[in-house]
Amino acid sequence: MTLLAVEELSVSFGAGRDRTSVVRNVSFSIAPGECVAIVGESGSGKSVTARTILGLAGTGSHVDARRLELAGHDVSRLAERELQRLRGDVVGLISQDALVSLDPLRRVGAEVGDPLRLHRRTSARARRRAVVDLLARVGVPRPELRARQYPHELSGGLRQRSLIASGIAAEPRLLIADEPTTALDMTVQAGILRLLADLRDAETGLLLISHDLGVVASLADRVLVMRHGRVIDEGPTAVILAGGAHPYTRELVHAVPEGVPRHTALLAREAESAPVPAQAGSSSQMPADAGARPVLSATGLEKSFGRGSHATRAVDGVDVHVQSGETLGVVGESGSGKTTVGRLLLALTEPDAGAVLLEGEAWSGVPERSRRPRRRLVGFVSQDTSSTVDPRWTVEHVIADALPGGLSPRQRRERAAEALAGVALEPALLDRSPRTLSGGQRQRVGIARALAAEPRVLVLDEPVSALDATVAAGVLDLLDDLQRERGLSYVLISHDLSVIRHMSDRVAVMHEGRIVETGPTETVFTAPEHEYTRRLLADVPMRPSI
Amino acid sequence: MSGSRAQAIVRWTARTVLRATVVLWASATLVFFITRLVPGDPAEAALGGPGSQASEEALDAVRQRYGFDQPLIVQYGIAMLALLRLDLGTSYALRQPVVQILADTVPGTATLAVLALLLAWAMALALTLSHTRSSRAGAAIGDTVEIVASAVPHFWLATILIAVFSTALAWFPPVSTGTPAGLVLPVVTLAVPIAGFLAHVMRGSLDEALSAPFATSAVARGETATGLRFRHALRHAALPALGLSAWAFGYLIGGAVVVETIFARPGLGRSLLQAVTVRDVPVVTGVVLVSALVYVILTVVTDALTRIIDPRIGIVTR
Fold first, then answer.
1. Domains of chain B listed by start with CATH number
2. Where are the beta strands (DSSP E) in A293-417?
3. Nearest CA in chain B to A106
4. What ipTM was reported for this prediction?
5. How far apart (Å, rounded) are the C-alpha atoms in residues B269 and B266?
6. Which residues of A touch B (CB under 8 A)?
7. Locate the ABC transporter domain: which residues (chain A) (predicted)?
8. In chain A, where are the structural domains located?
């Protein structure tokens, strides 16, 4: 018996000539206890498909389907009032990013208990008890306390668990999970995935929307690959993860840097520059000899925030050394202090103790005046370039801002165009606003800006975390090429172990402000010595080797 | 947990009282020096203004009595010390203690202002809820109503209301007597512009809240459109409007000058107007200080309310 049957579903927005098709001719079904995953990049129509099942395609949408049946109800023909009765009761939704998906002005318990208030005749008292039970069931410690708190008082993981608790409160037969673990750390993600697996095993049907193939592999029975609104490939999970039948599926699978050796391009390229073996003479080929002076080094770094009893030690005795032309990967969960280390290396924050040296000269503990002429040597690329630039500036302005002074307007424009060419972008983008660019283009502009000042070191803080897999792969390939062409050193800060492993020569694992383990990448990944590193590696959702 | 919360509340209260004191002292100082900057002899003003043609002896006597012959800084010190004793001096024109005049006029104006603010909130809520998420035409009409309402001058609105509801329909008296019916037109006059303004702000944030991800999750749980507005979105919409209410109250006191004069209603506003006309400096000073005090109190109250509604701000943050 099928729980959900979708046949020839099409969704479009607008009317007449402005009409855009977002979902085209999508068919699939889900049985109780089955997990079907839809993978695809942003804009592929996967989320709209999920929302349409809830009758929430959005204002101005046209939904057209031969069959759209949920637990015996024809969703496409139901009135709003009848849909309200299904939502939360027969079908539950877990969206991504619980920080904004829970009402910040209401207590967590009220949000979790809402489906019971709306669909079950229970007293307020019974509901409070049920909420505490639900929170305990999804693994929230101290559920009585958490139910009384507000969303901002909970960590990201606890918020996501609470959101799941609210999704399953009325025990729906179908659960739609839209990127349920995207914003979470590895260990937290592992817990959430176990929870979803338990629900699936308890005969709940699960529709999983994700761009993360690792997550999909650990949960789904069948996978649909969507692109431009169409299902272009589908099959059992193992078949799809092995590359499926469509070239795009293969591209998607290969875009994940997991298990791809260093300096091997993730995306297939034109023949002329096809998989580039590291060129002889490139600095990364020659491990820096012991006597070489590191470009950037820090010893005994300490940094606390807050005062008195509220003080937290964000960085606690950290030593890092970055040699010329190498990538140092700094990996850790949120709150581990890795971003603070990045800020200390950029001299945006002064350490409480310890010192940072740039090319052997004092970089911390000196007046900003003496740092300013050397600032250009250390560049920075953040997770989201659009938030680090003035939204009213053009791309040209953004890049030219990083160029040395004393250039004529024409020279500045030429140099900015060269910088764009260096990151494989068209010079036509110079006059655009960063806001109108795609995520991948924006990140390339951020890299171009960082490189325009001709730095020796780049601090890359989660440079591809906000990007779709294939786009991220392109940016990682670009960073690798640039490093070899220009002998750049990278400090790569990330929570994504596969990115760290693919990009780094050496790795530093951070936990609670300390580096618990450091060494050559492969040694750390294949023979981790510290207990924490082992735990971190064990929590990566594994997929069958490709 | 609760101990530290109590401590935080005590700290917040202490800080708030200290700040309020500084604001009041600053406004008293400002008023003192500004009234002294007005051209003309203060002694002449005390004797009934420039046209009084008082004798030189009489002026000297007044100078001595009010201390106008002392250096300015000494006069300032005396005025501040008197203020600490809640002594605001004596009205030049009415020969009455200013405190007495204020005690007579404040209640009337306070009633007017509080009722006007409540009515403005009610009207703003009604306007907001009737126009959210409506069609493009509906939103345009809502916009127009709000903007016109917030731009209407008090004197014009009062005149129209009197023409329609007193002269033509005879529902309410044109002169505000002590009866409740006499309050209606002045309160409406004061409330309309503020309602338009509050509604405009509220509708913007309500629309934003209704399209926020948490609204989607609420709808996905089976929440109804009404439930979504009242249980979720309205709280978000009320926050910015609440923050503006203290400002609105200051605006109301300014409006009271016009409204009390038009409806011949005794109150703070009318006293202020009369005092300014005859340069009755002690009364002007008194009215300004009372307005500053009310403004400070309201700011503190809206601040406290905001903290209660929005748990994210918390009592601990400054």
1. 2-84 (no CATH), 98-309 (1.10.3720.10)
2. 296-305, 312-322, 327-331, 353-358, 361-362, 378-381
3. B232
4. 0.73
5. 8
6. 54, 56, 80, 84-89, 92-93, 95, 97, 100-106, 111, 114-115, 118-119, 150, 152-153, 163, 166, 169
7. 4-253, 296-537
8. 296-305+312-538
| B136 vs A: CB within 8 A | no
> Tens digits of per-residue pLDDT, A430-451?
888 887 787 788 888 998 999 8
Contacts of B30 (CB under 8 A, 6+ apart): none
**Residue A112, φ and ψ in degrees, nearest 5:** -65, -35
Residue A440: HSE in the Cβ half-sphere, 13 Å Cα cutoff: 17
- What digits encode the pLDDT tens for the residues A505-527? 999 999 988 999 999 999 999 99
Helices then strands, each counted (H, E), chain B: 13, 0
B265 interface with A at CB cutoff 8 Å: no
Q: Are A487 and A281 in contact (CB under 8 A)?
A: no
Residue B309, both tokens: 């509604």
CB-CB contact of A11 with A212 (8 Å): no
CATH superfamily label, A296-305+312-538: P-loop containing nucleotide triphosphate hydrolases (3.40.50.300)
Residue with tokens 């801002």: A401
Residues of A in contact with B224 (CB under 8 A): 84
* pTM for the full predicted model: 0.74
At residue A175 the predicted structure's pLDDT band, cuts being 50, 70 and 90, is very high
Q: For A317-353, how does the pLDDT look when each residue is reduced to its tens digit (9 = 90+)?
A: 999 999 999 999 999 887 788 889 999 999 998 999 9
Q: Of the candidates A75, A133, A80, which has an alpha carbon nearest to the alpha carbon of residue A109?
A: A133
Closest-approach residue (CA) in chain A for B309: A105
Enumerate the H helices of A354-408 as residue ranges.
368-371, 395-400
> In Å, how far are A49, A418, B76 from B70, measured between CA atoms?
83, 76, 10
